[in-house]
Amino acid sequence: MTEASESGLLLGDAARAIGVSPDTLRRWERDGKLATRRDAANRRRVAPEDVERLAGHPRRHAAGDRLSARNRFPGVVRSVQVDGVMALVEIEAGPHLITAAITRDAVDELGLEPGVPATAAVKATSVMIDRADGR
């Protein structure tokens, strides 16, 4: 539920409407890209016209309804190697093979075995890239 008033939307509600995080709006405020006002409870409010202006940016693709990771690779389980409490699960997703190290319990709970459809979801703050030509 959003809380709007004559003085605008609360910072979190404005962030959701624009499709960014509240931290992004705070950063934009510090950088002078956005002006906010404080209400009687000292909460930041964003003017509706600023929300409309900023919401004009292209929206990111939806992350899904149950998982925040945006990089998803649907495929089929090709192998499961269980050793103690850990397991390596290899998923063939199109031309890609993705290996995940997960717990044995997760393998059992998800019923993972070769031939089962599964999706590898990757959430990382760092992605490494290698050039195929060796440069």
Can you describe this structure?
- This protein is of the alpha+beta class.
- The chain folds into two domains: 4-54, Multidrug-efflux Transporter Regulator, Chain: A, Domain 2, CATH 1.10.1660; 71-122, OB fold (Dihydrolipoamide Acetyltransferase, E2P) (Beta Barrel), CATH 2.40.50.100.
- The chain contains four helices and eight strands; from the N terminus they run E-E-H-H-E-E-H-E-E-E-H-E.
- The chain has helices at residues 11-18, 22-30, 48-54, 104-110; strands spanning 4-5, 8-10, 36-38, 44-46, 71-83, 86-93, 96-103, 117-122.
- Helix 1 (11-18) crosses helix 2 (22-30).
- The protein is elongated.
Summarize the model shown.
Helix content is 23%, strand content 34%.
Question: Could you outline the blueprint of secondary structure elements for this entry?
Answer:
Layout: E1 4-5, E2 8-10, H1 11-18, H2 22-30, E3 36-38, E4 44-46, H3 48-54, E5 71-83, E6 86-93, E7 96-103, H4 104-110, E8 117-122
Antiparallel strand pairs: 1-2, 2-4, 3-4, 5-6, 5-8, 6-7
Helix pairs in contact: 1-2, 1-3
